[in-house]
Amino acid sequence: MKQTRKLTGIALALTVATVGQAVRADEIVIATTGGLMRNMMEEYFYLPFAEASGTEVIPFDIEVPDQWARAEGMARTGDVEFDIVTATGPDLVGKAEILETIPCDDLANVKEYALPGACQPKGIARTTGGMVMTYNTDTFAGNEPRTWADFWDTEKFPGPRGLPDTGDRDWWLPTVALLADGVAKEDLYPLDLDRAYAKLDEIKPHIAVWWKTGNQVQQIMRDNEVAITMSYSGRALKVIQDGSPFAMAWDGAIRDTGYLAVLKNSPNTEGAMKFIDFFYGSAEGHPGFIQAVGYATSSTIGLSQLPEEEQKLYATYPANYELLVDPDFEWIGAHRDELRERWTNWLLQ
Amino acid sequence: MTRPGFFQPNGRQLSSAGILLLMAPFFMLIGFAFLYPLLSLLSLSVTEPEPGLSNYVRILDNPLYFKVLLRTLWIAVLVSVLALLMAFPVAMAMVSSSGPMAVFITAFVLLPFWSSVLVRTAAWAVLLQRNGIVNDLLQVVGITSEPIRLLYTQGAVVVAMTHVLLPFMVLPIYGALRNIPSDYDRAAAICGAGPLRRFAEVTVPLALPGVLGGVILVFLTALGYFITPALLGSPKEMMIATLISQQLREFLDWPFAAALVGVLTLFVTAITLVFSKVFRFDRMLGGQL
């Protein structure tokens, strides 16, 4: 309610600004999913940024599909209200025409501290995790699975398995199926869907749980409903830190990065870029933020401040980062409908 | 058998205009909150993406959607039958008992209404999980040697739905049974009918309106059931309500979801019409003689 009012206020201020050409907005509006991520961004970055720059950050809680629906409406009417939005990898391709290009080389801190690949033309990495294989270390004591081929090997690694039926499983699962079938990481895309689904047919009878939410994947690990499952790395991290006997195998985990993107013609594009630069350069913010949300930022001055043992639980830890699959969002974005239909039909069979 | 009607306080009868006025809020609510959204959704299914029946053709084209519909019908039938088998003895016990026992049984039937469907479904998830009570018990007794998969199966969905919908079966049957004068049973006994024959030829036929009311309530509710299959089932046991929600929320394909709603509505309407044709509706819901 308060945010809506503020937003209207900004819209008004913007109108005044456009008419008068004098008043400069000293606020930026950032659309993110609410809850933990919003609260921690606010605590570790929004408020320090406001203190350092005088530009106030106004968080706007919204789910991602809803956010895009509104952003596209705003682009059509020309009345843009968000400065920064939350984007997934495919969004950077699919929504490219309403997104401002990030001047990666002109932002000093980004140039200095960003991990390779973190700054894309249409968005910059906020947090990175992975769709990672997570297994019970008691069940597989002395015989630990390492790769997706091991996930498929039900004789050597017996036990109930879990896979996601949510998010981007329509390309996550064909991708890991191909890895299990022996395709090299570099040769995955374009995905050979016939081969991938033939491989998925093999594992289908062994899947005890098709999990639907991040909460559920944690619950099935804690309750021993599965011995091995694909999980969001941040969710697995919390289960491990809470003392459950689980570990992550990073080989072939799919990089899952949440991006910050800037809308074209946003009310305060300059402020948005300044925030991005601040985000990458703020050494104080990162450690606490990373520990609170369970996902690592892509600034090199971030994760390295944590104890070495703890760093290993995050996707951007160098030894893990080089094992990740880097999805080809260009191809995925172009084949979205086909991927979805194939997935839905396969699962319902 | 004459009884004072609802609209006859102190013997005065309300005019039909008065009755209509009293019913107006109900019909207005139905109109605004149910008919209008339903019809606008259905119109979406024949106008987008282009006018015509393309969305319905898509449902017929893909055998998977038909499979989901058949599965939904099958689960609804299964749940109705199971609920009937369990509800009838309970309703009989409610009618024949009195005092604290009657209160006790009634409380147990109504108790589930005091907690949300979500809580009851979650409770089943706890019972059926891999290291839950049911699996532990099976192993202690020696029926199984290791935990078996109970959760995320069709069985889990059917059991939990039967439990959740049971009161809707018990109450109409109880209503019908309570209205059977005990004289009939005694008269049949005097004429020499044994307990089984009295049950089959007196109690059951007279309870039939309540049974049909209960079956139709449970069956139609089960057809559109969402929470329980979503939480306890797996995608392999997807029911039509989950499919509709997936099309709406994940694929944002409103016209196609609307067409699925159209098909479901068609089925529900057809089944209701057949029921009301075969069995007279007025007798069914009231359960009166």
From TrEMBL, chain A:
GO cellular component, one term: outer membrane-bounded periplasmic space
Localisation per UniProt entry: Periplasm
Molecular function terms, GO-annotated: thiamine binding; thiamine pyrophosphate binding
SUPFAM superfamilies: Periplasmic binding protein-like II (SSF53850)
Keywords: Periplasm, Signal, Transport
GO aspect biological process, one term: thiamine transport
Keyword set includes Transport: yes
One Pfam assignment: SBP_bac_8
Family: Belongs to the bacterial solute-binding protein 1 family.
PANTHER family: THIAMINE-BINDING PERIPLASMIC PROTEIN, THIAMINE-BINDING PERIPLASMIC PROTEIN-RELATED
Protein name, as recorded: ABC transporter substrate-binding protein
From TrEMBL, chain B:
Subcellular location, record wording: Cell membrane
GO terms, biological process: transmembrane transport
Chain segments annotated as transmembrane: 20-39, 73-95, 102-127, 155-177, 206-227, 254-275
InterPro entries per UniProt: MetI-like (IPR000515), MetI-like_sf (IPR035906)
Bilayer topology annotation: Multi-pass membrane protein
Keywords per UniProt: Cell membrane, Membrane, Transmembrane, Transmembrane helix, Transport
Major place of residence: membrane
Domain ABC transmembrane type-1: 69-275
Domain of life, per lineage: Bacteria
GO cellular component terms given for this protein: plasma membrane
Family as reported in the entry's similarity comment: Belongs to the binding-protein-dependent transport system permease family. CysTW subfamily.
Designated name of the protein: ABC transporter permease
